[in-house]
Amino acid sequence: MTMEFTDRVSRVEPSATLAISALATELEAEGADVVDLSVGEPDFPTPENIVEAGQDAMDAGHTGYTTSAGILELREAIADKLADDGLDHSTDEIIVTPGAKQALYEIVQALVEDGDEVALLDPAWVSYEAMVKMAGGDLTRVDLSETDFQLEPALDDLADAVSDETELLIVNSPSNPTGAVYSDDALEGVRDLAVEHDITVISDEIYKEITYGVEPTSLGTLEGMADRTVTVNGFSKAYSMTGWRLGYFAGPEDLIDQAGKLHSHSVSSAVNFVQHAGLEALETETAVTEMVDAFEERRDLVVDLLADHGVDVAVPEGAFYMMLPVDDDDQAWCEGAIEDAHVATVPGSAFGTPGYARISYAASEERLEEGIERLAEEGYL
Ligand code: PLP
Questions:
Q1: Separation between Cα atoms, residue 122 and residue 339, nearest integer Å
Q2: Which CDD domains match (predicted)?
């Protein structure tokens, strides 16, 4: 018997990251000085030239509906960007969405039927689980916490977890919440399993532009993967455009056709002038480089400060998160940390990995130092 939509949604918890942010805002409203290390967004303003491009587009009257898949110029620019990453997609194989989250939602809805099995690598970004459950799918999870969040040493576990019954595997490298960037050998292992069991793979590359000394490979470039990979990316993180809501996905044409129906009947399109701002963003790499340099310095600072307090972390190579090992009851640890030290973090259990708290270092060096000092003072390190 198929599951009712209400049953599917009732299997889903509200977003833990958003809940912590709401708690931080509440404490701040009461006058507390909260060091918020829970947020998943760059603390840099959207680059001026991108803002201006959006304003110019509004002034020029780009305020009506656009083609559902997105304006052709933007899809061409995305196709060029993907080609630079080694991915060959025509503009017909690209859909521009209001954020990468919407892209992921559309793909999961288009692919996953009631009872389908979907594999996740834990810790996994909070919304994958929710999206799969809302589509009626069942989850198979592979724990990477025993291997410093690296996939390569856990390939045997992944091999045990997937089978011909697996419909979809979601890979996110660089990863939220761990900052891990998977090696080429790891991705080749994924490819071998995907081909063997005929699995479609979503490669969520939203942090691809934010890495420290490593070049992440796009999964879809590996032999045998072009026809089974849906690549997701967006503008929120790399261009500090979280509130503009702009993302995209590219994949095999039949899947794009299916997801495209869902897209046109739900969101119509991404916002017109925002798409023009996105076009400008793709032509500007300077802002990204400056931001990445700052994140790298902050990562080093946090790793060093934690080491001074005797805490070793798996050093992230991308994104702006790291996993801090905490008590088994990570939920209680995070609640205590925010109440006693006024430092907001996200419990690892929200990502399927209890015993950790996710720290976002998208905060100034001063605030990071303050946050770690307070955690230490209150006995949380
Ligand atoms: N994928 C991952 C792994 C993320 O961390 C996020 C945002 O936090 C998204 C997708 C969604 O990004 P967007 O703001 O483009 O919807």
A1: 27
A2: AAT_like
Distance, in Å, from the CA atom of 17 to the CA atom of 72, rounded to the nearest integer, reads 35
Instruction: Kindly list the protein residues whose Cβ atom lies closer than 6 A to any atom of ligand 1.
Output: 40, 99-101, 125, 172, 176, 204, 206, 234, 236, 242, 247
Predicted interface score ipTM higher than 0.90: yes
Q: What is the 3-state secondary structure (H, E, C) of 235-250?
A: CCCCCCCHHHCCEEEE
Query: What pLDDT, in 10s, does the model give residues 278-317?
Result: 999 998 876 688 899 999 999 999 999 999 999 999 999 9
Measured in Å, how far apart are the chain's first and last C-alpha atoms? Answer: 49
Domains in the chain (CATH in brackets) are 5-46+286-377 (3.90.1150.10), 64-282 (3.40.640.10)
* CA 292 to centroid of chain Cα atoms: 16
Q: Is 195 within 8 Å of 229 (Cβ atoms)? A: no
Global pTM reads 0.96
Query: Probe ligand 1: pick from 101, 244, 360, max atoms within 8 Å of CB?
Result: 101
d(CA 275, CA 166): 35
CA distance 250 to 202: 10
* Residue length of the chain: 381
Q: Where is 325: in which H helix or E strand?
A: strand 321-325
Distance, CA 176 to ligand 1 centroid (Å)?
9
| SS3 assignment, position 269 | coil
